[in-house]
């Protein structure tokens, strides 16, 4: 009769490299959302063109997508 091998419960699911990459991805996503914030006007009758600037339309969403790609890579890369 074969004995079942018990998994070692003291090990983490990912390695140090994976967690470092995940933290980096979270930071990049957070920076993207911070750059997206603002641009509104205090007075609802006044339109502020700052909402359509390069930072909010191009840079911030690109950073969020790069952060998500880093997260996917961090999950897929083989842990050591």
Q: Keywords for this structure?
A:
mainly alpha; 2 helices; 0% strand; rod-shaped
Description:
The structure is a single chain. The protein has helices spanning 16-36, 54-76. It is mainly α. The chain has one domain (16-76). Helix 1 (16-36) packs antiparallel against helix 2 (54-76). The two termini are 33 Å apart. The mean pLDDT is 88.
SSE order: HH
Mean pLDDT across all residues, rounded? 88
Query: Which residue ranges are poorly predicted, with pLDDT under 50 across at least 5 consecutive positions?
Result: none
Helical fraction = 55-70%
Outline type: rod-shaped
Q: Which strand-content bin applies to the residues?
A: under 5%
The biggest sheet amounts to: none
| Number of domain modules | 1
Query: What would you call the structural class?
Result: mainly alpha
Can you count the beta strands?
A: 0
Number of helices: 2
Report the C-alpha radius of gyration, rounded.
21 Å
**What is the CA-CA span between the terminal residues?**
33 Å
Task: Set out the fold topology.
Blueprint: H1 16-36, H2 54-76
Helix pairs in contact: 1-2
Write a short abstract of this structure.
This protein is mainly alpha-helical and 80 residues long.
